[in-house]
Design brief:
five-stranded antiparallel beta sheet; 300 residues; alpha+beta; 2 domains; three-stranded antiparallel beta sheet
């Protein structure tokens, strides 16, 4: 492939999106056979908005240093003037796919998800909200190591400006919080909701609200803001069967329903205030103690 990104050799293209292209690359002289991902913004697409998003993603990642978050190792410009940065490459599956493929028990899923909560909590501690948490942005490799990815629309918590018209925002609607679907700025509680959405899928094999491909965005938004989802145990019993068998082991009686529903409350101030609180309740569950969410009146 006839592309020149400084010391980096391109192996192949990984994906192309609205902001640019991601390549699989290596730098044998400095890193041996280890592979990395190089994200480049195309000059022919580089309008002010995309350049700003690209720079913000790089700036966010520059401030992150956590074992469960991908890190930047280099940045620069190609021979043709395209800006790029190089980050760790995670060869694996989304957290949901990994749990299915490895037939993880319910408690193993909770432990893995707990790591994701702590990674998001670290991001929040640095003053950023992710705004697009979904299974494909939480990757797990063959060794079971987890990495939080894709900070393309991450935003400083101090930035309270609206993005765009609801429905045209760059987040993924099926995982977005009710306030994001309504066009309000994302806060810590918005990421908590998206984490809860992922957690619900790990427990049940399906989302808290159905979002068929033919459903219009406006109809899905109306469904989400119209109320809270059913308890995961109820969804398992009354809804469509999950994508894979899950051994319940009295887990829902131990508080998983309450934890999931707490994270998915319609009103942000009714959810866990932070990803740390979410993780702490998971800790209580894993230690055989009653989660705090189960000690309050959590809707079902």
């Amino acid at each position: 492939m006839n592309l020149a990104f400084g010391r980096w050799q391109v192996i192949r293209e990984l994906k192309t999106g609205g902001m640019g292209t991601v390549f699989l690359v290596w730098n044998e002289a400095e890193f041996g056979s280890r592979k990395f991902a190089l994200k480049s913004i195309r000059k022919d697409l580089a309008n002010d908005h995309l350049v700003s998003r690209f720079q913000r993603e790089r700036e966010v990642m520059d401030q992150l240093s956590h074992p469960d978050i991908v890190r930047i190792v280099d940045r620069g410009q190609s021979d043709t003037g395209e800006s790029y940065f190089v980050m760790e490459y995670v060869e694996g599956q989304s957290i949901v796919e990994y749990c299915v493929e490895e037939s993880l028990s319910l408690d193993q899923r909770v432990r893995l998800f707990h790591r994701a909560c702590l990674a998001v909590a670290y991001l929040h501690s640095k003053g950023f909200v992710h705004r697009d948490l979904k299974p494909s942005n939480i990757f797990v490799d063959s060794d079971g190591d987890l990495k939080l990815l894709d900070f393309g629309i991450a935003k400083a918590l101090t930035d309270v400006t609206k993005s765009t018209i609801a429905g045209l925002q760059p987040f993924t609607p099926a995982y977005a919080s009710p306030e994001q679907l309504l066009g309000s700025p994302a806060k810590l509680a918005s990421d908590v909701y998206s984490l809860g959405n992922i957690f619900y899928r790990l427990l049940t094999g399906r989302g808290p609200f159905p979002y068929p491909t033919e459903m219009k965005f406006e109809d899905f938004r109306r469904l989400v803001v119209g109320g809270n989802p059913p308890a995961p145990s109820k969804a398992l019993m009354e809804g469509a069967p999950p994508d894979e068998p899950v051994t319940l082991e009295r887990a829902f009686a131990r508080g998983l329903d309450s934890i999931a529903l707490k994270s998915l409350m319609l009103m942000p101030d009714k959810r866990y205030r932070t990803a740390v609180e979410f993780a702490e309740d998971l800790d209580l569950y894993l230690n055989g103690e009653k989660p705090l969410a189960a000690q309050g009146a959590i809707g079902s």
